[in-house]
Each structure stands twice: as structure tokens, then as C-alpha cells.
Amino acid sequence: MKPILLVDFGSTNTKVTAVDVENYEVLGTAAAYTTVETDINNGFREAVSNLEKITGHIEYEERYACSSAAGGLKMISIGLVPELTAQASREASLGAGAKVWKTYSFNLTKGDMREIEEYHPDIILLTGGTDGGNSECILYNAQMLSSLSYDCPIVIAGNRCAAEECQEILGERTTFLCENVMPKLGELNIEPTQKQIREIFLKRIVQGKGLSEAADLVSGIIMPTPSAMLTAMELLSDGWEELRGIGELVGVDLGGATTDIYSIAEGSPANMGTVMKGIQEPYAKRSVEGDIGMRYSVHGILEAVGDRRLSKIAGINRQKVNELVDYLSNHTDYIPDNEEMEKMDYALACAAVETAVSRHAGSLEQVYTPCGLTYLQSGKDLRRVKYVVVTGGALIHAKHTEEIAKFALYDESTPGSLRPENAEILVDRKYILAAMGLLSQHYPAAALEIMKKEIAYYGHKK
């Protein structure tokens, strides 16, 4: 046996997972409240103590950790055109595991700068222009950012002809030069920028969030938790070397404050008569719905679907729906303890999944041209995806997880939404996806086989 301890310092809970990488087994999982306000090590030690009640005392050969504590990576991204470089900038940030507060397009205004100062991001991603294209916008925005009142790391990943001049304008500030996120029109190049953002997280953000002492208890904080999640999804989908994955998938992580959606799929048009609109989105994509969550963002669900829709799903009158949503918003630690609240929670979860996956998936619209009817596709066509993998406490601990997850699927009432049509629902019951993303950095084969056993039952019995 070769035991490894995997730790996820979350914003609410610190989760620990013990695995045996020689026998591809999960030895146990446990959690405790993340004590980020005092000493984060206290929550970590309590989680390990809870784990030992299940596994007994284990001398771990290695320990690895990821983190989204204290809100994770707070970022803003800046680009030129909303549908092009600004979108590319956002994709790069989200794929790196950041929480993108806002994406700015065109020239920054004085009002934009006041917003940025108030938000106080951990990292700024500055992009704009294809290589050899527009340089005025990115240079202007660099000049505006030079007036920031504090030294925020700025990643410059725009027009290569203007990048070094941007660095000169920003002077003594902490800057990092990367390849252009969109070197040619419609062509994404986000991996170098994602790598740089993760490195900044490791070197600077971990210390700033008070996680450096916790890092001493493990072999280091390897990556942001959302990045670990995306890595796990990609490994489960694609496989590793000769070990096969399960194929294209969509991942849903429903939380109290946000809902993260992942897709590992090409998403190219299914029909010859369909034309792509905008940029080709990345094969491994992450999106974050900051207004969709089961407690802190519960009003966002109500605003997105309306009380009539929630009333229909829950079987509760509309006035009562509004009252219950207000209650949940003011009691974020509440766990349903009666039938009415269970119905309300069920309806909210269904609506949250439906809304978040709809926003993540692409869309199809009919356009009449002189040559006849044409279809325009924006985003990714996920209709052929084989699996929907669900995780997050709000889904894992729900009574009707599979029923809720089916709201991620294609609905004939909204034919323009390109969600999965006939996907199988898989549930991360033991909450191990982030841990497996971590493990895959050192033991990819073990991480893949454990996920196939615990989540996909691929070649195993349930």
C-alpha cells in the first residue's frame, strides 16, 4: 500500500481524501469547517482527525493540496471586442481556476478604474488585439492601469507588437508577459496564460491568503480547486496514455454561492449547413455562474427563472416561493427539515442546474440569407455528449440527485439551447473530483482508475 493524503482547502469546508495509489482505492474521505478567519491549520487538523476515525492512523508517504479558501483567485479580464479578445481573456482566466468578477471591453473609463480599485482583484489579465492588429486599446488600458493605488500582478497577453511597451508603461509594477490569447482572428491560445495565472497563485496568492503555514503541512498547494476540478474532468474524459477515458462529458458543480459548469467536448457544429458565430470555444471549458447558488445566491435563481417556474417544479404557490427564497437567503446554513422546504430546495437545485448549463452550452439560431435558410451556432454544441457528471454538496446530499441532474439535458421547449440530449448521469458521491485532479499531477493512472471505479463504474459494478 502507498497512502497519499489529498486536501482541498475550500471557502466553507476543508475536505481530505486518503487514497492508496498502488491498489487504486479510496481509503476514506472527511471534512471540517475551514477556519480561514483564525488559523486555517485548525480546520485541517480537525478534518484529518475525522478521517482517522474512518481509516485509523496512517503515515502518509505524500500530501498534496488545492485551495479556493478566502474566495480563491479574484480576477478581472480586459480585452478589446466583447465577442473576441475579451471573450478569449475570460476563457483563459476561468480555465486557470480564477473567479472572474468582470470582463471589460474597449477603453477603460474612469468609472471602470473606480470599480477595479473597489473590487481590489488579486490578478488582472490585460489583452487586446490580434498580433499585428489594433494596439491603441491595449496601450491606453495599460496607461490607465498604471494609476492603480496598489501593486496588483498584471498578466499581459495581447498584441505581441504592443506587449513590451505595455510593460514599460506599467513601470515598476509586477507584470508578466505571455503569448497573445488570440494571435489570429478567431484563434484561441489560452494555455500559456492559464499556466502563468496558476504560477502566480502558487507564489503569491497562497501567502496572501494565509495558506503558507498550511502549505508546510503538505507537500505544497499545487493549484486552485477549480483548476483541479477541470483537470479531473479532462482526465476522466480523455484517459491517460493507453488507459481509456469515458468520452465527452459535461460537469456540474452546484454550490451555495456559485455554480461551476465544465465541458470536455469539441462542440463543433453537428450539421454541414451550420455556420459558427464568434470564436471557437476551448475543448476543456469552465464557466462560473456567480449569481446562481443554493444559499448566498438563491435570489439569483429566482430572478433567472421566475417564481412561476419554481412554483411549478416545487408544487408550492408563488407567494410562498418568494417567502422561502427570502428565508434561505437570510439563513445560509439552513438544512431542510420539513417537506415544504425539501420541495423548495429541490426546485431551486433543478432551476440552478438548468440555468447554469443553458448559459454554458451553445445556442442555435435560424437566419434567412439569399441562399436560403442557414443556422448560426454560438458556443459549443453539447447535444452529443455522453455523460453529465454532477458534484457539489447541494447535489451529492440531495434526495433526488439524478432527477435534479436531468435538468442539465436538452429540452424541446428551448430547441435553440444545445445541451446534452441523451447523456447518462454520473454522481461524484464521495466528493473526490478535486482530489483526483490533484492526484493526477503525480499519479494520473491511479487518479483515472479511481474515478472510473467510484464515479463512472467503468468496468466495475455499482
From TrEMBL:
InterPro entries: ATPase_NBD, MutL
Domain of life per record: Bacteria
One Pfam family per UniProt: MutL
Protein name: MutL protein
Natural source organism: Blautia hansenii (Ruminococcus hansenii)
